[in-house]
Amino acid sequence: MAKTKTTYFCQNCGHQAPKWLGRCPACGEWNTFVEEVIVKEEPVAGNWRPASATKTAAKPKAIHAIQYEAQERVVTPDTELNRVLGGGIVPGSLVLIGGEPGIGKSTLLLQIALGLKDMRVLYVTGEESEQQIKMRAERLPAPISECYIMAETSTQNIFRTVEHFEPEILIIDSIQTMHSSLVESGAGSVSQVRECTAEFMKYAKESGVPVFIVGHITKDGSLAGPKVLEHMVDTVLTFEGDRHTTYRILRTTKNRFGSTSELGIYEMQGTGLRQVTNPSEILISQRDEALSGISIGSMLEGNRPLLIEIQALVSVANYGTPQRSSTGFDAKRLQMLLAVLEKRGGFRLGQQDVFLNVAGGLKVEDPAIDLSVCAAIVSSYEDIAIPSSVAFAAEVGLGGEVRAVHRVDSRISEAEKLGFKQIFISKYNTKGLDLDAYKIKIRPVSKLDEVFQGVL
Ligand code: TYD
Ligand code: MG
């Protein structure tokens, strides 16, 4: 065994330093350096040629000579997961599912494991006991697969089991609880997490068994984040959502076998996670009468167009400086839109409190909701309701001009599908669009005034 060697690792990004540092030079986080024992010698820089490699050097192959068969993916009953993975589980792939504790990673994986028809799934848990997993399984839809549970944290023991058990899918929950005897530092440290992941990667590639690993993300960096693993694995999925709302979004942040702009939406219920196939329906509240301050905007999440409800409340500021508060929408952008409305629209918003909220707890970055934000603010200011059959999809510029957005056709189709009667888009977006081909009435506009004249 090599002699004991220690080094300092940033627990957030895995940056390595010979001495303790207060602030990580790589990711900028404070107080994240921890001393770890590493026994495996790191390769010396420049010494890239291992001693054994010189004799049996592999020959490079011409690209046309490489045999390739399209691998058959395992299609799960979970259509959201299939989409996010790019069409199903690829044999021999290593998928990392990251997310904050309590968001539902274990529930999602257990549900997938139980739903895989005629497959031997091995679910290794390092966090909960077998009884606890059973308790959770009782809440979920009845199993149709052969799912086996094992409480274990040593990777060597897992590989010993796997060798004769031969699962068809392996699930590791979570990577931060696993430890390999090849590395001395404690479970959850950067060097352990890296070593264990490398071992699972090797196993996945050699056996062709897909491996899912769970990785917790903590904001304070007290656990080695999955960030340090992202470059090692084939696919990185992040499970996001607010723990206090029931919606969860499964997003691909890296995928060697598919697109990264896909996402899946789930709702956490008492009986596990339910796939949400038509998210716009739940994001728009069901109301009979139109209320002032509410407008419907179109946003793209990945490739999916969603219609969301924007709520604004504008009221006279009675206490000193007017307040501007926004939930789910960038506060700076809100300030900008207010300034545009004031200067270009002539609305006296300077002495008004403005509160903005994106319904459903979503965070929106797509500039295409600008127009609906402006419409909601003006609607609240004037106290005139926007008809609930109207949607908006355009960006607003500093000159009060209504700008084009990308993929306007899919946004229009989504609004049409949901029964909207009118949609406001930018005049510059109409090129190549057949306005008469849609049932929904398309209202191309180039200036903010035209929108307000048309709808308020
Ligand atoms: P869990 O899957 O353990 O989260 P993670 O593995 O990401 O830490 O648990 C998520 C939460 O979901 C937990 O607080 C309980 C809740 N939950 C439900 O609401 N419904 C259910 O059917 C299940 C199984 C869990
Ligand atoms: Mg868990």
TrEMBL record:
Region listing for Lon-protease-like, in residue ranges: 353-456
Recorded superkingdom: Bacteria
Any Pfam family matching the protein: Zn_ribbon_LapB
Keywords: ATP-binding, DNA damage, DNA repair, DNA-binding, Hydrolase, Metal-binding, Nucleotide-binding, Stress response, Zinc, Zinc-finger
Keyword Iron-sulfur: no
Chain span(s) of sequence motif RadA KNRFG motif: 254-258
Annotated RecA family profile domain residues: 70-217
Cited SMART domains: AAA (SM00382)
InterPro entries attached to this UniProt entry: AAA+_ATPase, DNA_repair_RadA, P-loop_NTPase, RecA_ATP-bd, Ribosomal_Su5_D2-typ_SF, Ribsml_uS5_D2-typ_fold_subgr, Rubredoxin_2
UniProt binding sites for ATP: G99, E100, P101, G102, I103, G104, K105, S106
Domain notes: The middle region has homology to RecA with ATPase motifs including the RadA KNRFG motif, while the C-terminus is homologous to Lon protease.
Functional summary from the UniProt entry: Plays a role in repairing double-strand DNA breaks, probably involving stabilizing or processing branched DNA or blocked replication forks. DNA-dependent ATPase involved in processing of recombination intermediates, plays a role in repairing DNA breaks. Stimulates the branch migration of RecA-mediated strand transfer reactions, allowing the 3' invading strand to extend heteroduplex DNA faster. Binds ssDNA in the presence of ADP but not other nucleotides, has ATPase activity that is stimulated by ssDNA and various branched DNA structures, but inhibited by SSB. Does not have RecA's homology-searching function.
UniProt similarity note: Belongs to the RecA family. RadA subfamily.
Name by which UniProt lists this protein: DNA repair protein RadA
Originating species: Larkinella bovis
